UniProtKB/TrEMBL annotation:
Biological source species: Stephanodiscus triporus
Protein name stated in the entry: PDZ domain-containing protein
Example of a GO MF term: 2 iron, 2 sulfur cluster binding
Keyword Translocase set for record: no
Record keyword Acyltransferase present: no
Record's signal peptide: 1-27
């Protein structure tokens, strides 16, 4: 293996492959997907819109790049896990974030192939005989096709696909998976794709990106006659308000609640009928998910109240501060 002072360029299927000393510890491989030179008329740098939906947090209402991490932090946080197959999930080796305050986002980009992608790939974990490892984008070259779509250093390419049209008009799509592959296996997969047939051909890149979870700081105020001091808790976007509060030791059973179910212990199982988990929203109503029809009917005379069991915080992946009154009927 060459030392850090001697890079060995190799011409491989029209792509420049360089073996060099890595910046992040140990000898690593960097793969340069060459630059494309295009006219200014076709060089829009606006990032592609992602049709993302973050489970209960809904579609993002903010620029998700605000939650991206710097490259050094991303390298430290990437890890891989083995997932056993089941009726609900596919088995295999998949990328994960080490820190529970982070999440792995999946993004997809369509990139023009003519002239190359303009990426430098680096292996940060690997050296195994089975080819398993972690390969990331170390650099997005400024004048390359990839600079125009929103890829960032630290992203890991997990799949590539190209579509070709035969002479009789049939469209054939070739897809290769590169998730949790070392450098060599990643390059083998990339170069196995059929070559472009025209200047308009594009490749679809699916990448995974480590991002921090948006946080919501919730100040809880208790009824004056309880003599309990205000408490501030930290929640993550997408958490159910009732479940999040209960797991953090916040009591929600309001003994004065006007029940809309058959009565009982005050724990209806989050059906949204007993109203024992109602909270008063002093500040930050916009950070909660929209009110459903049933909840709206039950709380029609209390516009500043929400059923915690039916509310999701950080809706739209938005961060912010909230102030809630616990057991508002006792105020």
């Amino acid at each position: 293996m060459p030392s850090s002072s001697s890079a060995l360029p190799i011409l491989l299927c029209g792509l420049c492959c360089i073996l060099q000393q890595g910046r992040y510890g140990g000898a690593v491989h960097s793969f340069v997907l060459p630059l494309a030179r295009t006219s200014s008329s076709s060089s829009s740098r606006k990032a592609q819109v992602q049709n993302s939906y973050y489970a209960s947090a809904g579609a993002p209402a903010v620029d998700m790049s605000a939650y991206d991490l710097p490259l050094d932090r991303t390298i430290d946080e990437w890890t891989a896990v083995v997932q056993a197959p089941s009726s609900l999930q596919e088995g295999g080796v998949f990328l994960r974030a080490k820190n529970k305050e982070l999440f792995v986002d999946t993004l997809q980009y369509s990139i023009r192939r003519a002239g190359g992608l303009g990426l430098i790939l680096t292996e940060i974990a690997g050296g195994r005989e089975d080819g398993i490892g972690i390969t990331i984008i170390e650099e997005v070259l400024g004048d390359g096709n990839s600079a125009r779509v929103g890829l960032v250093p630290g992203d890991s390419i997990v799949a590539l696909s190209v579509s070709t049209t035969s002479r009789n008009g049939d469209v054939e799509t070739t897809r290769v998976s590169t998730e949790c592959l070392g450098y060599d296996a990643t390059i083998d997969a990339i170069t196995s794709l059929p070559p472009p047939t025209s200047d308009d051909d594009a490749v679809t890149l699916t990448v995974k990106r480590v991002r921090r979870q948006p946080k919501i700081n919730v100040r809880l105020q208790y009824p004056p006659d309880t003599d309990e001091e205000d408490v501030t808790i930290e929640l993550f976007a997408g958490e159910n308000l009732r479940r999040a509060m209960l797991t953090r030791g916040i009591k929600l059973n309001d003994r004065l609640a006007e029940r809309f179910d058959s009565g009982g212990s005050g724990d209806c199982g989050s059906d949204g009928t007993c109203a024992t988990c109602v909270v008063g929203v002093v500040k930050g109503m916009e950070l909660l998910s929209p009110m459903g029809q049933q909840e709206g009917q039950i709380l029609s005379k209390k516009p500043r109240w929400r059923m915690a069991c039916k509310a999701v915080v950080g809706y739209g992946m938005v961060e912010g501060d909230m102030t809630l009154q616990v057991n508002p009927r006792q105020w």
